[in-house]
Write a structure and sequence with these properties.
There is one protein chain. By secondary structure, the chain is an alpha+beta fold. It has three domains: 146 residues, no CATH class; 231 residues; 112 residues, Immunoglobulins (Immunoglobulin-like, Sandwich), CATH 2.60.40. Helices cover 29% and strands 23% of the residues. It has 17 helices and 23 strands. The strands form five sheets. The protein has a seven-stranded mixed beta barrel with strand order 1-2-4-5-6-8-7. Strands 15, 16, 18, 19, 22 and 23 form a six-stranded antiparallel β-sheet that branches. The termini are far apart.
């Protein structure tokens, strides 16, 4: 089984870590003998925080846990006085629009095998509710197949040392194991902080309608992933009293209006959590200090980075996202953790569904092949932290070294073995009800997609190298009118080798730019002009090129009726009164 192989890898890495740690902790006392003391004190920020290896020792990657969930109506106080149909009827956006909490139901969670709950396992013999259940996820909550958050009641014990159980259906993942694949790899990589995962076969009995004849219904395959909270921190040997934030839309800007200390009269938790969800200690002073220094360009980034970030963790996290093509991690889908008495921040991966899917997008998703700004380091250019790190040759070289290291550690052969194991599990569920009815692809396509996954890291490695040689992406601004002309402008691009940059400006009435109205090439400044246009919709495309001939588009993407992403394209309208608005 994979578990045994993983444990041996973990054991080897742990042993190596102990040897290196022993070498690194050599003091004057060990050099000079007993009686001599070392006057140098080591602070918490001098010691790298690492994930627990012991927490994964009982993992069995190719096992399936069977869970039985009986749902009942509860009480109004707990917001559990709803039917199971009501819980599944709405996406999270419904609750946001209504300004209400998500509907919940009371539940009895039991663990067993395919024959039913098993004596000695969690919930066996329970007849009263021991948990509450609600939907979870964001975009995926719109799907008919929901993901669920099960919270075990206090005093009802724990399942695998967890009270919050997140069951993910991964409705947009045609393989249904990409998230698990990433976490199971991360837990063996030094410097990374991972999470336990488990395949789960779920059965649900709905008693919320009052029916006495309700039977368990097969809900198919899920993947359970540890919920990031104080319990997670404790279980992974981290500081449960530390700061823990989940990025919602966080680009490491200062956010002066919302990122405030709780004692500030203008502090608004709801507004704060539109940027970062608070999952741990709510003393935000350390976060604010980091953002103040990071956004202070008079302080060298090398100084700020060394003070606030752990080199091994940061470059490991970023390199892994780059190599697995997990694009949706620039401003969300990661956690930031910092021990209570330290200053440094650590990245923890979250939601890896977007990884390992470049070739699927090209072959079946209508994506354009080749390099685009959302591949390689250019994908992270919109984040202040990543942009400043990448502009530093010293830090950029450390990222390159880490990428090369991971390419040697996470081999194609290793990924192939894991893909074969996991696909054997997900295949059997996707080929039968209920998952078969909602499978993103048919089984023939599934088999073709599975074959592409082991090569994903090589594709992304090449895109990484290309991005280092290309200009960086930039934002277009809304057109303005002055002196009888329309003025188009955009942010300047950036080149790591400081090569000369020129821009190509194109204006068209169609987003495919089949018939262009105005083309201006070899522009030396990020600006173009044209005559006033008649009323209607128009499209602008700007491309930057460096002296070596490598090109880059603006960060804007336009998706038209052809359902293809058109990179570097912005839509705008000229109104009848002559005003211009961005489309």
């Amino acid at each position: 089984m994979l578990r045994k192989r993983m444990i041996s890898v973990i054991g080897l890495l742990l042993a190596m870590s102990m040897v290196f740690s022993a070498c690194g902790m050599e003091t004057e006392e060990t050099k000079e003998g007993v009686g001599e003391t070392d006057s140098t004190q080591v602070s918490i920020d001098d010691v790298s925080v690492t994930d627990s290896s012991v927490i994964y020792q009982d993992d069995d990657e190719d096992s399936i846990v069977t869970m039985y969930l009986t749902v009942r109506q509860g009480n109004e106080t707990d917001n559990t006085n709803h039917t199971w149909e009501e819980v599944n009827a709405h996406s999270v956006y419904y609750y946001q629009e209504q300004g209400i909490e998500r509907y919940r139901v009371a539940g009895i969670l039991q663990v067993g095998d395919e024959n039913g709950p098993v004596m000695g396992m969690f919930g066996y013999g329970e007849f009263a509710p021991n948990c509450t259940v609600q939907i979870r996820g964001q975009t995926s909550s719109r799907s008919p197949q929901k993901s669920y958050k099960i919270e075990i009641n206090k005093n009802e014990g724990y399942w695998r040392e967890q009270r919050t159980i997140a069951l993910n259906k991964h409705v947009y993942d045609s393989a249904r194991f990409r998230n698990k694949l990433s976490y199971d790899l991360l837990k063996t990589i030094p410097g990374a902080i991972s999470a336990r995962t488990q395949f789960v076969h779920l059965y649900v009995k709905d008693e919320t309608t009052g029916s006495t004849n309700a039977q368990f219904e097969d809900y198919g395959l899920y993947t359970q992933v540890e919920q990031m909270n104080k319990t997670y921190l404790r279980n992974h040997g981290l500081d449960e009293n530390g700061q823990l934030y989940k990025a919602t839309m966080f680009e490491f800007l200062r956010y002066e209006d919302v990122i405030l200390e709780t004692s500030d009269p203008d502090y608004d938790k709801t507004a704060f959590e539109q940027v970062l969800e608070i999952k741990g200690n709510d003393d935000h002073s350390k976060l604010i200090a980091m953002l103040e220094d990071l956004n202070n360009y008079s302080i060298p980034i090398e100084t700020t980075f060394a003070k606030y970030f752990d080199e091994e963790n940061y470059f490991t996290w970023l390199a892994f996202q780059l190599l697995t093509g997990n694009q949706d991690t620039t401003a969300q889908n990661f956690y930031l953790y910092s021990p209570q008495n330290g200053n440094k921040w650590y990245f923890i991966s979250w939601d890896n569904d977007n990884a390992w899917d470049y070739m699927e997008g090209i072959t079946y998703g209508g994506e354009s092949p080749g390099y685009h700004y959302d591949l390689g380091v250019s994908n992270y250019w919109g984040s202040i932290l990543h942009q400043r790190v990448l502009k530093s040759e010293e830090l950029r070289n450390k990222l390159i070294e880490k990428v090369e290291e991971l390419m040697g550690l996470v081999t194609r052969e290793r990924v192939s073995e894991m893909v074969e194991t996991y696909s054997n599990i997900t295949r059997q569920y996707l080929s039968q009800l209920p998952d078969q009815m909602y499978a993103p692809e048919d089984m023939e396509t599934f088999e073709e997609i599975i074959k592409t996954i082991p090569d994903e890291m090589e594709y992304n490695y090449q895109f990484f190298l290309t991005s280092l040689e290309s200009p960086m992406p930039f934002y277009l601004t809304e057109p303005t009118i002055a002196d009888g002309q329309i003025i188009f402008s955009w942010d300047p691009s950036y080149d790591f080798d400081d090569e000369a940059l020129t821009y190509k400006f194109e204006l068209s009435q169609d987003y495919t730019f089949t018939n262009t109205i105005n083309v201006q090439d070899q522009l030396m400044v990020p600006q173009a002009f044209c005559d006033i246009l008649p009323t209607g919709q128009y499209f602008v495309r700007v491309t930057c090129a460096n002296a070596s001939g490598m090109t880059q588009t603006a960060m804007e993407i336009y998706e038209g009726e052809d359902e293809v992403k058109h990179y570097g394209v912005m839509s705008f309208y000229v109104n009848p009164d002559g005003t211009i608005v961005r489309g």
